[in-house]
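In the design runs reported in the main text, the only information available to the sequence generator was the tokenized backbone. The following block is the verbatim input for one such run; it is reproduced so that readers can re-run the procedure and compare outputs position by position.
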């Protein structure tokens, strides 16, 4: 967390004193505040015991300075990492690429690929990578063309309300044959019913988030879940719909 404005100003004053700059007028110019502001904060620093009457940093002042600088460093590092996530993309290299190579970035089956072709957005490679290795791409421009996928949620009957398991299994098979896409499950009932239907499970456990992430990459998925578990995921569903506004959601009760 970034220190408050007053603390930040006091850290900057201490740094100037550390650099042997002790004239209030010079400090004021260097940190962009008034001379009166510098004098005000120097008085506070003296009252706290961080600097002596001769404007020398005390042991307590060095401890305060170190703590403050560490907080600023952590804040800056965290936000640089966030910015890096936005401006730098991970992609699968279609061929051997060298740092500095210009590439095109495109989506294929839900994953970003980078190569020297002309399709997709443009970027610059940040690391050397061989074919089918991970490459970081920055300086992105243009648009990665793909269509957002669909999230379909199929709510199974409560287990005590299943009167004909054979018919339910047949319905699950028909559902998949009609829609295709990835199969995701939440909970034991969904797991067993899909396994009994001889269908392959692609996404397990925290799959509500997984199917939305897949849809944001252009992948269609069907999530199978029991009514009891679906009830507990409704708040997550609303949150994910707000986060992924471009993703269409359909709900079907069996």
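Verbatim output:
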């Amino acid at each position: 967390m970034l220190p408050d404005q007053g603390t930040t100003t006091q850290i900057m004053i201490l740094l100037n004193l550390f650099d042997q700059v002790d004239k209030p007028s010079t400090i004021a110019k260097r940190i962009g505040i008034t001379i009166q502001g510098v004098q005000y904060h120097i008085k506070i620093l003296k009252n706290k015991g961080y600097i002596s009457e001769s404007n020398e940093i005390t042991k307590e002042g060095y401890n305060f300075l170190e703590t403050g600088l560490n907080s600023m460093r952590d804040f800056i590092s965290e936000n640089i990492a966030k910015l890096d996530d936005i401006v730098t993309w991970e992609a699968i290299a279609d061929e051997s690429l060298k740092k500095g190579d210009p590439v095109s970035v495109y989506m294929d089956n839900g994953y970003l690929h980078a190569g020297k072709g002309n399709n997709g957005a443009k970027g610059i490679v940040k690391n050397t990578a061989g074919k089918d290795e991970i490459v970081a791409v920055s300086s992105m421009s243009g648009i990665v063309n793909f269509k957002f996928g669909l999230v379909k949620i199929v709510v199974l009957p409560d287990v005590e309300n299943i009167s004909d398991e054979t018919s339910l299994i047949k319905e699950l098979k028909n559902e998949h044959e009609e829609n295709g896409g990835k199969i995701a499950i939440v909970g034991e009932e969904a797991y067993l019913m899909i396994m009994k239907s001889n269908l392959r499970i692609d996404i397990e456990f925290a799959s509500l988030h997984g199917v939305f992430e897949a849809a944001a990459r252009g992948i269609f998925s069907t999530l199978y879940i029991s009514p009891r578990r679906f009830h507990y995921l409704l708040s997550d569903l609303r949150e994910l719909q707000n986060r992924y506004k471009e993703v269409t959601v359909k709900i079907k009760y069996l």
